[in-house]
Amino acid sequence: xxxxxxxxxKEKITTTMIDTLxxxxxxxxxxxxxxxxxxxLIILTSTVLAVLTEYIFGKFILKKDIETDFxxxxxxxxxxxxxxxxxxxxxxGLASIISVLFGQLCFxxxxxxxxxxxxxxxxxxxLFFPSVxxxxxAAWSNPDIVAPGFEGVGSILLANTGMIGGYSVIxxxxxxxxxxxxxxxxxxVPTGLFxxxxxxxxxxxxxxxEIPLELGEIVFLGVFILTDLYSSPKYLFGKLxxxxxxxxxxxxxxxxxxxxxxxxxxxxxxxxxxxxxxSVLKPNVYGDDKLGFAEITxxxxxxxxxxxxxFAFIFLHQFGLILYLFIIYLFFGIWKxxxxx
Length: 341
Prior knowledge:
Blueprint: H1 3-23, H2 25-35, H3 37-62, H4 71-81, H5 89-103, H6 117-128, H7 169-181, H8 188-206, H9 215-225, H10 236-255, H11 262-272, H12 274-280, H13 293-318, H14 322-339
Helix pairs in contact: 1-4, 1-7, 2-3, 2-7, 3-4, 3-5, 4-5, 4-6, 5-6, 6-11, 7-9, 8-9, 8-10, 10-11, 10-13, 11-13
């Protein structure tokens, strides 16, 4: 890559990350108003340790200073927002360190990563400390704080449940509008996710299958997590396919009793297919966003492969084997780190 191209890429990443940080401000304000200072401490701890991990990694592994582009700060903030409002501080810090180290830095640079860092950090906590974020645990409520909640349409304003970042759909929408105005958020991935989730939800309801749908969490996922620059597809149909398949995968996981881990597993599975998606579902040589028979056939093949992996993850989860798969990934990350200069 030429020097001018590297500079342009650096500027693009930096400005995008700064805009993402600004877009999270409404979510952070709502968290403070509702829950007080503790969620802010979670987010602050996660962010500081993310940046500190990057600095130490540069000094002692790469033997040089890493130029900041704010991508690591964004990871820290989003990890904090993806946790429960009363998650122990040390857990938030650990999730952030794992996210940055094994989701981003081990690949050498932000544009080379192949997995979503936030997913890696939160999944580590669910696997190694399952009781901390278990439903009904102290991480989700505090008897000294009575947070307001609303029913029906009012739940769009505030929903007294779920992760810090999913408490207010309105706050997420405000942040997403800012990102769209700044040209940082495209509609395809969130739209694909929302369509497949809600279609699947109503189909499941018709069949009598209970789906644990949290509106705030779904919208937060679609706006801030799935739209990561380098662990999501580049092109129109690829983005739609990505969002739709994540939603469909989540529905299947929910149907088999997998709840908190469902979006994490779905994202990691689709991360595996990012390169094939970019290769197959891309504009033709004339720049037109059209799909031919060959692209449609290959897309269906990828969809089938995704579903097969979903059922493989369901099997591994039911027998408690995901933990060992994740440990293998951590060893892979350590090996990647050892190869960096």
